[in-house]
Amino acid sequence: MIALLHHSVDDGAERAPERDAFRCDGEALTYAELSQKSSQLAAVLRERGVRRGDRVAIYMTKSLQLPVAVYGVLKAGAAYVPIDPAAPRERIETILRDCGIRHLITGESRARKATRLQAETPELQTVVGASGEASVAWDEVFAASALTAAVHATSLDLAYVMYTSGSTGAPKGLTHTHDSGLAYARLSAREYGVGPEDRLGNHSPLHFDMSTFEFLTAPLAGATTVLVPEEAMLFPRRVAELIEVERLTFWYSVPLALIQLLDRGSLEHRDHSSLRWVLFGGEPFPPKHLARLARHWPQVRFSNSYGPAEVNQCTAHHLSASEIDGERPVPLGEIWPGADGRIVDEHGEDVADGASGELLISAPTMMRGYWGRPDLNAVSFVEVELHPGFTRRYYRTGDLVQRSPDGLLEFLGRRDRQVKVRGYRVELDELEALLCAEDGVAEAAAVALPSGGGDASLVAAALPETGGEIDGTVLRRRLAERLPGYAVPSRVEVMDALPRTGSDKIDRPALARQLAATSPSK
Question: pTM here?
Fold first, then answer.
């Protein structure tokens, strides 16, 4: 019986010990090897003082040691805390202090940085994967005896803490249990029909919630996960080659990665007939680009997989390639089985059918709460009385949606992306969607900058398609033809690149600072 996340790996080792669990750079780690090596790491961590409920940081780039780290931590009874390998030292130190981390696991590419970090962080007692008096090299780990007795744990124990930036830029930790992680793995495996013969391409880094599909769902289904190395992700042609050579059947990423494949991956020269399902999420996928992708991959089923990291995933909408028209945005779809969604107004009351409001979600995949942030939990969750004496806990997604006549949820924008201009409410997401629909525009982003009169000033940025040219003045004129005057940005800047977060989403706060610095009034 699989009651805890790491049971999936040991179950796979019993059922198909020689099947590849993870692959990276042409090398493989079988289920038997993953089970053995993660048990060895668990034993080393226990010897070093890791106990049930502890948090262990994972600070490493993609390699076959990464899944060993994840499942070794879980087997030790602890929760893993993935840290962006590219994060600045100050952010790493903030996470270590905030989460009370005393043990860290690293790999060859980050070993020196981890050693320096340990020297400057007294609380950090052990680093696995580095050299030094208080460190344990990987060779030592794999020479150790495996953990023989299972650590007592329950499904309500923490499994992982995932840090994401808040509205102020300060990291906040999302706490997920074995229960919520397994609920996601089971639901996603069932929703997408993941089986032992499938090969999932892992594009997202471990600190991004999308990675749970490959790291949690794939082992539960007995499938193989192929890690896309960071250096390969910089070159779309190498990613396109990997999809072909590794015969991937699943792909899950933010739209940007797929748009880059379209523009620079030379898809017409690759055999991607093995691909059967492509999932995307994190941001809306511009319909015109999705239609182009569908023409390259006519055999693929496409899914808009929606859900904040706080609830893993909660809706899905599936389309065959022939159903994508390039005009209409893809809906969020229907609420997953076992979950419940409500659309409420600013007073928390249910809206009428077809009206817009904020989406509240209650689901077995939902996090326990934010680490050490009772203040944030108080405003992020709401108890709704469904029947007299019976309440249910919902997470406030901050996303504005409406239900279409056919019952599907449609994304309208973020609650915190609504701004007032001259007393009128403007949806920045709508402005971005209109810009993205223009010929020659690959991506677009809109921000509101403070103005002297206390009102917001709208500014937009547009990224041209590869090899193309666009004119910001022309784009602004086109928007003026389709939007009321108050909703037209004061300028549209054409940029070579948009600032990104560590999960490849557009970093709008950074963009706002950048655009403010280049304002004509400066």
Answer: 0.87
Q: Is 346 left (phi over 0), alpha (psi -120 to 50) or beta?
A: alpha
Which residue in 327, 270, 319, 321 sits closest to 297, CA to CA? Answer: 321
Partners of 383 in the beta sheet? Answer: 393
Q: Which helix (H) or strand (E) holds 42?
A: helix 31-47
Token digits of residue 258: 């797929």
DSSP assignment of 452-518 equals TTSSEEEEEEEEEPTT----HHHHHHHHHHHS-GGGS-SEEEE-S---B-TTSSB-HHHHHHHHHHT
Which run of H or E residues covers position 296?
helix 287-296
- Residue 149 corresponds to which tokens in the numbers above? 């007795």
Going by C-beta distance under 8 Å and a sequence separation of 6 or more, which residues neighbour residue 351?
A: 343, 344, 345, 357
Q: What is the residue whose two structure tokens read 């000033």?
A: 457
Q: Rounded to the nearest 5°, which phi and psi values hold at 255?
A: -55, -35
Query: What is the spatial distance between Cα 22 and Cα 8, in angstroms, rounded to a whole number?
Result: 13
The predicted pLDDT at position 389 comes to 83
Quickly count: other Cβ atoms within 10 Å of residue 379's Cβ. 9
Asked if residue 220 lies in contact with residue 198, where contact means CB atoms within 8 angstroms, the answer is no
HSE, CB side, 13 Å, CA atoms: give it for residue 38: 31
> Would residue 124 be called left, alpha or beta, if left means φ above 0 and alpha means ψ between -120 and 50 degrees?
beta
Rg (Cα) of the chain, in Å, rounded?
A: 23
390-432 per-position pLDDT tens digit: 899 999 999 999 999 999 999 988 887 777 676 666 778 888 8
pLDDT tens readout for residues 292-329: 999 999 999 999 999 999 999 999 999 999 999 988 89
- The residues near 235 (Cβ < 8 Å, ≥ 6 apart) are 264
Query: Average pLDDT for residues 22-39, to the nearest whole number?
Result: 98
CA distance 519 to 203: 36
Question: What is the rounded CA–CA span in Å between residue 487 and residue 154?
Answer: 52
- Is the model more confident about 256 or about 319? 319
Question: Alpha carbon of 348 to those of 159, 359, 381, 394, 416: distances in Å?
Answer: 32, 10, 12, 11, 16
- Contact between 31 and 220 under an 8 Å Cβ cutoff? The reply is no
Amino acid identity, position 367: M
Q: Please write the tens of the pLDDT for every residue from 470-516.
A: 999 999 999 988 887 878 999 999 999 999 887 778 888 899 999 98
3-state helix, strand, coil in the chain (%, to 5): 35, 30, 35
Q: What mean pLDDT value characterizes the chain?
A: 92
Query: Which strand ranges, in their side-by-side order, compose the sheet holding 250-253?
Result: 27-30, 20-24, 224-227, 199-202, 250-253, 277-280, 301-306, 315-320, 334-335
- Please name the residues in contact with 46: beta carbons below 8 A apart, sequence gap of 6 or more: 76, 77, 147, 151
